[in-house]
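Deliverable D2.4 — example input (structure tokens):
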């Protein structure tokens, strides 16, 4: 998520910083909200578990667990990146354009892999490691935006339900994003329709983004294509999903397998 906010800020020219500051002040007034707190009440915890299960069922979490691989794009806030995520083998391909066309393929378990710039393998070990780190940072951010709801089972995550249609996700100091809190808003069917954020990289407590234009993948999982908010709009279209991967044909990860 930090890369998203940085991308938003860098699209403003220095001459427009005062305009940006004014915009940010207005947004802070419009979107600040109180952070939800954890409750130890058994009834509240039961409500949170029931809402979590309803929201996961609506996105078809069972189908997600059976999805071997997924291709998606992250577009917006000055970025355009494409991913192939081999979930079963924990392999990722990230493609983007910076000072050239980059194609990075690596293993999630040890961040080892290979980097191509403009179709040519990068042989310098330091540059290769730096580009893999960059690709992984993009992946962590962009996969979160693909479906934040999937993080309810992440290490260090705790949930609560301030209401029958709101599910709060809290990360402890040992979590992936320590100290951050997210509030998911669901409709009557359990569909995720909006998310509020209390995170270190966004200066507006309770900043809200809506989740719109849902699509159903080939494996049956529902993802929103669009996340819209006052400062940015992000699209994460799913290009393909696979029940079995790799399918017949070339294996693009063959050269990085241990």
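Example output (designed residues):
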């Amino acid at each position: 998520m930090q890369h998203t906010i940085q991308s938003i800020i860098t699209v403003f020219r220095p001459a427009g910083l005062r305009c940006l500051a004014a915009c940010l002040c207005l947004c802070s007034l419009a979107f600040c909200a109180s952070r939800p707190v954890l409750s130890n009440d058994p009834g509240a915890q039961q409500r949170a578990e029931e809402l979590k299960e309803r929201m996961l069922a609506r996105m078809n979490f069972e189908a997600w667990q059976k999805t071997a691989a997924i291709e998606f794009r992250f577009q917006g806030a000055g970025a355009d990146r494409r991913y192939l995520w081999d979930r079963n083998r924990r392999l990722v391909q990230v493609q983007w354009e910076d000072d050239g066309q980059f194609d990075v393929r690596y293993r999630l378990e040890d961040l080892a892999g290979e980097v191509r710039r403009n179709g040519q393998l990068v042989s310098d070990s330091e540059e290769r490691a730096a580009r893999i780190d960059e690709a992984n940072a993009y992946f962590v951010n962009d996969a979160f935006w693909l479906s934040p709801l999937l993080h309810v089972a992440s290490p260090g995550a705790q949930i609560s339900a301030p209401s029958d249609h709101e599910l709060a996700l809290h990360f402890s100091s040992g979590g992936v994003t320590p100290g951050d809190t997210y509030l998911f808003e669901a409709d009557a069917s359990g569909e995720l329709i909006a998310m509020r954020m209390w995170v270190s990289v966004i200066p507006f407590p309770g900043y809200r983004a809506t989740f719109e234009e849902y699509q159903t993948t080939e494996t049956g999982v529902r993802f929103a294509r669009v996340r819209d908010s006052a400062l940015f709009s992000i699209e994460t279209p799913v290009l393909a999903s696979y029940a079995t991967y790799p399918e017949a044909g070339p294996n693009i990860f063959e050269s990085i397998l241990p």
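The longest strand covers residues 207-216.
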